Amino acid sequence: MKMLAATAAIAVTMPLAAQTSDAPAISVETVRGLTETLSSDEFEGRAPGTPGEELTVTLLAERFAAAGLQPGNNGSWFQEVPLVEIDANPETAALSYTVNGDTVSLAYGSDMVIGTPRVVPEISVTDAELVFVGYGINAPERGWNDYEGLDMTNRIAVILVNDPDFESPTNEGIFDGRAMTYYGRWTYKYEEAARQGAAGAIIIHDTAPASYGWNVVESSWSGPQLNIQAENDHMDRVPVEGWVTNEAARAMLAAAGQDLDALTAAAREQGFTSVPLGITASASVENTIRRENSRNVIAILPGTTRADEYVIHTAHWDHLGRCTPAPDGDDICNGALDNATGTAGLVALAEAHAAAGPSERSMVFLAVTAEESGLLGSAYYGANPVFPLAQTAGGINMDGLNILGETRNVVVVGYGKSELEDYLARASAAQGRVVEPEPSPEAGYFFRSDHFALARPGVPMIYAEGGEDLINGGPEAGAAAAMDYRDNRYHGPKDEYDPNWNWDGAIQDLELYYAIGRELANSDAWPNWYPDAEFRAARDASRPPSE
Questions:
Q1: Which of 29, 130, 177, 184 has the smallest count of CB within 10 Å of its CB?
Q2: Running DSSP on this structure, what letter comes out for residue 15?
Q3: 221 by DSSP, 3-state: which?
Q4: What are the phi and psi torsion angles at 132 (to 5°)?
Q5: How far apart, in Å, are the Cα atoms of 450 and each of 348, 378, 398, 439?
Q6: 197 φ, ψ to 5°?
Q7: Domains located in the chain, CATH noted
Q8: Environment class of residue 476 by beta-carbon count within 10 Å: exposed (0-12), middle (13-18) or buried (19+)?
Q9: pLDDT digits 0-9 by tens, 377-386
């Protein structure tokens, strides 16, 4: 979940925005009640493969059935998602570097977190040379290759987070200026390091370009890590992946006679040449491995005249489960905002559409697993779709609802990418709201929620939500609440349900999603990505524009 304008307990008592004239009321009782239940300690943070999953998926199936929907997967409410859990032993996980015969060991958790995506009981990398590879990008279409001329055999890549022009004041630049491209995501950096044959890939954390603090890295990367099962047990991945704190990285680079700030400045220039550091590092990890199936939950409201065409709504039901304890000892990451609210909103939307009766196209409601582990549930659905992607007209993703009250604006994550923004503009205008680009495109929110896993194979998806311009409090209050959430609750034990939350903004946004979904489901149009969007080719390949 990557909220833009969420969360503090700010009471707002403005009237709800006018609904679409033929729309049933969105049930605030459903949204509030399900959020409270899903984020209760009984559900233990809804981690896949735990008793919390069983409680969650059972409850969702029951609620979809009660709303009058049908099981979406050939008579079943569930799509099995084969996962493998790798749990690195923090007591033995080690990362050290050696300079002039002296070895410096980094502390797990406070200095670094490491693991391996390979499904093996143990792995080690010994005396591998560290190489600073800047942003770790190989993008020939942009004239950029940080690995130019490098042989990464028995070398560990040391990588900066985000992409080279993230500090740009505009969205113009080699890497879209301030707006992060996929080259800026940590997932890409590990993927590229593997393609380069590296023995390891270590990302230097920095709060501003990462858009979250070290606490989020530590909480998200420690403990069991999930991946989709693969026949090759992911042996094509980098043997060791991890992060180091900014402070630990500075000390390591200084020991190699280098300065992090100077290297970062150089790495932002086209033609940058990677820098072998002349020091070696060793890393080792011991794992406990468990294979398991998790589940996506799929419900469908069959269409009337074009039942073989689909509009999809997505939200992830999972969160982090047990995590790094707060100072008070609370070790349950309840995920109330992220994403119990979005999951509850998915059910509330399903109820409203069912109450209105079937649309011309079928409407699919997909609650996916393992978003927090790398969009695994949505990626699995994208690779194994129950409903053909070429026959899916488009979709709407929800990843955290607004619990601050109504807003004057709507922000689009990944603004300017698809024709679904025209649908959003019409629905927003009916509410008297303005549509704006996301305020922090450098944070890469577009790549951090489930719409991305469906966009990559070409399905037009929109991810939009209430912005920071609160009717009661204005943009200053909205921005302050967003920062407070990011710093104090995001991916931590204090993302908990608060009975003082105001749900008017959530209902306002759900009415927006209802209007978009209903218009698309009663249309024969096939919206596409804009011509310069990176997903246009995939859509055109699966569904040529002439169709």
A1: 29
A2: P
A3: helix
A4: -80, 115
A5: 19, 6, 9, 20
A6: 80, 25
A7: 28-83+292-525 (3.40.630.10), 86-289 (3.50.30.30)
A8: exposed
A9: 999 999 999 9
